[in-house]
Amino acid sequence: MRRAHFKFSWIVPLLLAPQLLVIFTFFYWPSAQALYWAFTLEQPWGGGNTWVGFDNFRKVLSDPYYWGSVRVSVIYALATTILAMGMALTLALFVDRQLAGYRVWRIGIIWPYAVAAPAVGLAFQFVFNPGAGIFSYINTISPGWWDLSKHPWQAVTAIVIAGAWKQVSYSFIFFLAALQAIPRSLTEAAAMDGARPLRRMIDLQLPLLTPTFFFLLVINITDSFTDSFGIVDTLTGGGPFRATDLMVYKIYSDGFRGFDYSGAAAQSIILMCLVMALTFIQFRYIERRVHYT
Amino acid sequence: MTQKLATATLVALAATAGTASAERAKFEYWYGLTGDLGAVVAETCNRFNASQDQYEAVCVGQDGYEKAVQNTIAAFRAGKHPTLLQSFDAGTADLMMSGEFYPVTKLMADTGVTIDWADYFPGIANYYSSKSGEFFSMPWNSSTPVYYWNKDLFAKAGLTEAPITWEGMEAAFKALKTAGVDCPYAYAPSSWIDLEQFSMAHGVPVASNNNGYDGLDSELLFNTTLHVQHMENIKRWLDEGLAQLRTPAAGKSSRDSFVEGECAVFFSSIADHNTVHKLKPAFAWDVQIIPTYEGVERKNTVVGGASLWVLSGKTDEEYKGAAAYLAFIATKPEQQFLLENSGYIPVTKSTYEALKAEGFYDKEPYINRDIAMKSLTWTEPTPLTRGIRLGSFIQIRAEWTAEVEAALAGQKTMKEALDTAVARGNDHLKRFAATYPGKSFP
After folding, report:
1. Number of domains in chain A
2. What pLDDT digit, counting tens, does each position of B419-428 carry?
3. Is the pLDDT of residue B152 over 50?
4. Helical axes A206-226 vs A64-96, angle rounded to 10°
5. Closest to A186 measured CA to CA, from A169, A166, A208
6. Domain assignment of residue A40, yes or no
7. What pLDDT does B15 receive?
8. What percent of chain A has pLDDT over 70?
9. Which of A60, A230, B118, B250 could disulfide-link A118, Cβ–Cβ 3.0 to 4.6 Å?
10. Which residue of B414, B426, B427, B435 to mutate against A (max A Cβ within 10 Å)?
11. CB contact, 8 Å: B43 with chain A?
12. CA distance A77 to A87
């Protein structure tokens, strides 16, 4: 029996080096720095810091408003993920059926992914603005009903819709690719057995999509925890009264706006742990149901 | 006096420069102003560069005060910071504590540039100087709050005067309402106006230790002063329909509500005077000093806006250039250039007197703009009206805003909201003090 093996060659570390360097510089180094700051009180302009042990974590975790922020972050992540993946799947199924003009739709649906989050937030300003947006028509029927500055649930709904809209295209590309990877022969065989499109979708296509589904679930949840800043900043600014103060947004406002680098570092570590824990749970409990063929 | 000396210095500098090489000494200046006002800064830099041939100011806009400070901190930590930074007051507590700046009084003395520091209005001088009276930073774009009122709507309600007491304001709101004005007062929560300047004008403390000047162990006190009653009044006016909440999140900003003729009154910085003028409201309007409650002896308000900081760790050449630039912007022509292109106010007495003598404030669009000076100089600054020197102040403002918004939405009473804001603000203050153990404000 022949075993394939590689001789050690300098070319291997050499080829790996640039990538490792990038990861080290932009991920491990800042993360280590954040971890260190999380246990100190760091002076923004340099000039030293004081070791405070777990004080920063204790302070953050004993703050009821921080738990409010965690709660709304979880709601936001779940709602945007469900909404975005649901819409993406629906759209992908239609495009896959090659309905009239599907090539145009395909490009049209991919586009939003190229839009930066703050731009998405601004665009949705025109939709949700209580005075001038599309939603202001509701207010002409029942004055003052739609008001992002008064009703927390409306503000949360607004950022969820904007966030989901931005995520749809990413999931769409993957769903479509996965659908097109399903062998035609399978679909045709099912059709010959008399399965209508809806039946084929439920019994054939969806089960075959589970690996993609799982991958997108992990990515979408991670993304909605970490990439919601631009939308919140432009659409609600964390208000009304902290109702949309997502964890990433709070890190920004405490750290960069309020110069509390250490408090923000502690929050970053907590966010990182939370995302890791969620990913772990997904791999542990959901992946079991995924069949890779 | 200042400008004469400063001009003389500039001429002297220019003369020596003539013989020097054509190579100009460059220094960087990062500023926060954006839009039209950012263009004014850029233009001021061009004027400076054209006025002499020894130094070159490289001016870089940073897209807002907050970002200017954030970017400068990041650059500072990497050793690539600018010589000059334009910063707003709330962002400078950490800079003061770090000591990583070159006090302008000292800079001018070291570089041999003469500035008549006594010429600065005391309300401005106190705000930007240390306990010993040394200027930390160079005052430049300065403002103070006023309120804007729609003369036509007031006339409709039979009112010709803009009241200067809150009791008078309430009566005016009622009269306006009776006369069919749906929105007498466009209210937008502003910690700067409703809390800080309100407390100054009434001579009540925002925090202990004379608003933080006398030590880092300060505690917030605004839940125990007249401020509570004032915020409760605002809530009541909103409930009674005498005022309406007008914020961008609620659909329309208070300024837009005013300019469009919908609301009769809104509060803002005098810096908005120029903007409101440019938006050309279709009615007669004017500005008035912020009101006080009856039975209170009115005090001065303090400046807002920003000042220019000189940062540490630069070369002598860069410092000389920065000194020349700061002397340049203190001259009367340059102050006037800023005033003509913005709503800001003069910072020195001599410039103000000269402008008044020239009739600057008698013609449109500057008529009555100097009412801000009246507010700033109402009394000599007292220990409680020098200003506010608290760490983590941006966060304290955010706590105040979030709590007040919650109270206005009916989630809690105003007193509960302010108590919470104070308790949370005190936590921020303790944290700030712990970050700088054993130190105090210079």
Report:
1. 1
2. 999 999 999 9
3. yes
4. 140
5. A208
6. no
7. 46
8. 98
9. A230
10. B435
11. no
12. 15
Residue-number span of the structural domain to which A172 is assigned: 63-289
Decide if A49 is inside a domain. Answer: no
* A241 → closest Cβ in B245, B409, B434: B409
Q: Which residues in chain B (372-431) have CB-CB distances under 8 A to chain A?
A: 392, 394-395, 398, 402-403, 405-406, 409, 411, 427-428, 431
Q: Which of B71, B43, B45 is nearest to B57 (CA)?
A: B45
Q: What is the CATH number of the domain that holds A233?
A: 1.10.3720.10
Does residue A94 sit within a domain? yes
Verify whether the Cβ–Cβ distance A239 to B250 is below 8 Å: no
Considering only CB atoms, B73 lies closest to which of A45, A149, A253, namely: A45
pLDDT for res A2: 62
Contact A47 B394 (CB under 8 A): no
Measured between beta carbons, the chain A residues lying within 8 angstroms of B402 are 239, 241-242
* Chain A residue with minimum CA distance to B424: A63
**Residues of B whose CB is below 8 A from A262:** 435
Per the CB < 8 Å rule, is A46 touching B403? no
What is the value of ipTM here, to two decimals? 0.80
Task: Pick A2 or A65 by higher pLDDT.
Answer: A65
* Residue A3, pLDDT score: 66
Contact map slice: A 115-174 vs B, CB within 8 A: 129-132, 136, 147-150
DSSP class of residue B380?
A: P
Q: Which residues contact B15 (CB under 8 A, 6 or more apart)?
A: none
pLDDT higher than threshold 60 for residue A215 = yes
Q: Are B41 and B86 in contact (CB under 8 A)?
A: yes
DSSP state of A204: I
Contacts A256 to B, Cβ<8 Å: 66, 70
Quote the tokens at residue A181: 């990877």
- The reported pLDDT for the residue numbered B19 is 45
Q: How far apart are CA A45 and CA A58, in angstroms?
A: 25
What would the pLDDT profile of A54-109 be if each residue is shown by its tens digit?
Answer: 889 998 999 999 999 999 999 999 999 999 999 999 888 888 877 777 778 778 88
What residue ranges define each of the domains in chain B, with the CATH number in brackets? 2-143+303-358 (3.40.190.10), 145-301+370-435 (3.40.190.10)
Decide if pLDDT at B2 tops 60.
no
Average pLDDT over residues A163-177: 88
Treating both helix axes as pointing N-terminal to C-terminal, what angle do B166-178 and B226-240 enclose, rounded to 10 degrees?
Answer: 0
Residue A13 lies inside a defined structural domain of this protein: no
Calpha distance B271→B353 (Å, rounded):
20
Neighbours of B431 (CB within 10 A): 20
Whether residue B165 has pLDDT greater than 50: yes
